[in-house]
Design a protein that fits this description.
Helix content is 29%, strand content 24%. It is of the alpha/beta class and 334 residues long. A 7-stranded mixed β-sheet has the order 10-9-8-11-12-13-14, with helices on both faces. Helix 1 packs across helix 8 and helix 4 packs parallel to helix 5.
């Protein structure tokens, strides 16, 4: 589906820049909008200090900086802060930080004594650096929006993922939330696909990046299961969920998630798993050196491009979700 009512973009007043985190996504967003990526130098000196120089005039321009804060998280975050500061000191009219994946989003509350709320700290850093607005995709916790004193537009890739499976016309499908915390979003996916919902009860073990699956709540026997989560880190939660579902009698199991964080061992775990396919988006780049035969990537470039276009001309971003369907970006690199 194409956006037939897309607002025209005045590229004279719009500039889109990219850090080193995900330049391919920035290029695809700019291709959707029919404009080049802004010219900037972004590199490190020999002393490991990051340096940014904007190579074109942005005085009073509407500037968007695309930089997901995935691994290496601290480097990418610092690079983004410096880019925002450089644009602010170059007299940009408005600066929007486009962070498809918001790093430190898991640290959104004090769930133990004497721990930080790093997601709030990052919000303060972005605002102090000079960001006037945040554009992001599927935050780990919705309350992160409230950490900001600037406007926040949170997009969702839910329908991009759901449309992919809707096109498969899978019979006896059941959507499975991999934990109770994601159940509301999973319920929306289930309603969109017109299929039942099941929930997996799990317990995270201390601060380690692994969890223990406890119970499957719902009728899954004889069905095709589609697990749903906002991100996949080590793959432990997803793999445990798949094993539990197979033990409960599902015939096939698929997985989908917005953010492919994919710690190094996640690729091997997915490859050895019972999953037919693991479907993610390109909010983060994948490691090209890792085996990813079971991984399917859908692009959010058109979704981000449309949101940028609407923000630039002052139209509603919320209307994007009234159609509940987004186009595939046609020229995404493999």
């Amino acid at each position: 589906m194409n956006f037939t009512n897309s607002p025209l973009v005045d590229t004279d007043d719009l500039r889109i820049f990219s850090g080193n985190s995900h330049p391919i996504l920035a290029k695809n967003v700019c291709s959707y909008l029919g404009m080049p990526v802004g010219q900037a130098e972004v590199f490190k000196f020999a002393n490991d200090n990051s340096f940014v120089r904007i190579m074109e005039n942005i005085r009073q321009r509407d500037v968007f900086i695309i930089q997901p804060t995935g691994a290496p998280v601290n480097d990418n975050l610092m690079e983004l802060l410096i880019m925002i500061d450089a644009c602010k000191r170059a007299s940009a009219g408005r600066i929007t930080a486009v962070i498809p994946y918001y790093g430190y989003g898991r640290t959104d509350k004090k769930d133990q004594p004497r721990v930080p709320i790093t997601a709030r700290l990052v919000a303060d850093l972005l605002t102090t650096a000079g960001a006037d607005r945040l554009l992001t995709v599927d935050l780990h916790a919705g309350q992160i929006q409230g950490f900001f004193n600037i406007p926040v537009d949170e997009l969702t890739a839910m329908t991009i993922l759901a449309d992919y499976f809707k096109a498969k016309e899978i019979e006896d499908l059941v959507v499975v939330a991999v934990d109770i915390g994601i159940s509301k979003r999973a319920r929306d996916v289930a309603e969109y696909l017109d299929c039942p919902l099941a929930i997996i009860e799990k317990r995270r073990i201390d601060n380690a990046d692994h969890s223990e699956t406890l119970n499957v709540i719902g009728d899954v026997e004889g069905k095709v299961a589609l697990t749903f989560d906002d991100e996949i880190l080590t793959g432990g939660t997803t793999i445990n969920a798949g094993e539990a579902l197979m033990e409960c009698g599902v015939t096939q199991v698929y997985a989908c998630a917005t953010h492919p964080v994919f710690a190094s061992r996640a690729y091997d775990a997915i490859d050895r798993s019972d999953y037919e396919e693991v479907v993610v988006t390109d909010t983060l780049p994948l490691n090209p050196e890792k085996k990813q035969d079971k991984v399917k990537v859908l692009s959010v470039a058109s979704l981000l491009g449309e949101a940028i276009s609407r923000i630039h001309v002052g139209q509603s971003v919320g209307e994007l979700f009234s159609t509940r369907s987004y186009p595939e970006f046609p020229n995404r690199p493999a």
